[in-house]
Amino acid sequence: MRPSEFYQRHLDAVSRTFALCIPRLDAPFRDRVALSYLLLRVLDTVEDAPFSDRLLQQRQFNSFRQFLHERPTRAQVEAFRSNFPGGLSEGERALLADTEVFLEDAHDLPPAAREVVFGGIGRMAQGMAAYARRSVPLRLLDLEDVCRYCCIVAGLVGEMLTQLWALGGGAPPRMLFAYRFGLFLQKVNILKDQAEDEAAGRFLVPHRRELLASLRADAEGALSYLTSLPRSERGYRTFCAWSLMLGATSLAQLDGPRESRRAQTMALLGRTGEIAQDDEALRRQFAALLPELPEVRGRPPLGKPEPAEWFVRMLGAPLHTAELVELGALHAAPARGVAANQ
Description:
By secondary structure, the protein is an all-alpha fold. It is 66% helix and 1% strand.
């Protein structure tokens, strides 16, 4: 793999939060997480780029998935890069310029780590492609739809991080908590970016109060994930605590002005780092940061373009079907008895 500094330069360009959090991790977990995140950002670019030809976008999803199955040639990666439309950010263009390098490093990972990374990213690409096939503009239909989408784009990240960390020999937290962590952060981002997304033709918030109310259970599960980690695991605890506290802060500031609060953020990270191994202190700080959330009676789910059976098979999560129901991604077990991986 390339030196950590190579990955850090890209992280600094595309994600302030992860650029801060990932260096807290120990090697080799640190570099595997950084590489995985950058590959996910390439996949995000396929999803978010302003393709006028939707069939071309689907071909890009397929090409990316094929790159995970078989090491691509330089010509294949160059064709993939050249198929993107204009209007990408400088950070996105830099990511695409080094996509071949990311894929080389990923294919050179030890087999167990490579299986985790490619398995999670491949399933995410399949799920993203399905949502990209929906009619334009994209509209998530109800809370269940939001939860399914979040399982795909964020729950799988929680699964992947947990499995990569466990390769070091630690006993991992419950996978349900890993998905809760991903859903909490992703739902906060969806709420925070609602105006920007809708201006771009992506309507991801079908009912704002209902989505806010659903965060209560996600927040509890995310905190349980953090406190389930061994207290001796300072690096990963700090990584998770920083992400969780920043998410709670963003949630509390949803209706405020979008402005830089760098000094406050750095102070929060400093305080959080000091208590990263103290479960009770983490619980108190998280409770103080988390705003009051509404209580809303859920509405019956609507029909989706993709059947529940497809969602369960595609996600391939190491969860019981009842846990997918608990996450809000299913309202009942699929009619034909398709079970989640157990």
